[in-house]
Amino acid sequence: MTQPGVDQKVLDQNIRELQEWLRNAWQQLADPSLTAFSRRELRNQMKQCNADLRVQLQAASKQMLSQPAASGKIFAKPELRILA
């Protein structure tokens, strides 16, 4: 589903959107006016969304593992100059 070069920000946005959709779906599922058919359809969509979310989380996890451990903190010997 995701390409190898997907940006971390895009993955994070996708994850947030899927989580928000699931949150709203749970609220809709609690609505007593929902018909049995609509309830079943919503649960099927929720299962698909869960699967999509799992794929996005795995992609984000792989991308985080492939990044360097010292993200942004590189310690090197400073260059010293003697001023006279």
Describe the structure concisely:
With 84 residues, the chain is an all-alpha fold.
Task: Please give a handful of descriptors for the protein shown.
84 residues, 2 helices, mainly alpha, 63% helix, single chain
Describe this structure in words.
The protein is mostly helical and about 80 residues long. Helix content is about 65%, strand content about 0%. The chain has two helices and no strands. The longest helix is centred in the middle third of the chain and has 31 residues. The N and C termini lie far apart (about 60 Å). The mean pLDDT is about 85.
SSE map:
Layout: H1 8-29, H2 36-66
Helix pairs in contact: 1-2
Order of helices and strands: HH
The end-to-end distance, rounded to whole angstroms, is 62 Å
Tally the helices: 2
Low-confidence stretches: none
Number of strands: 0
Average residue pLDDT: 85
- The general outline is rod-shaped
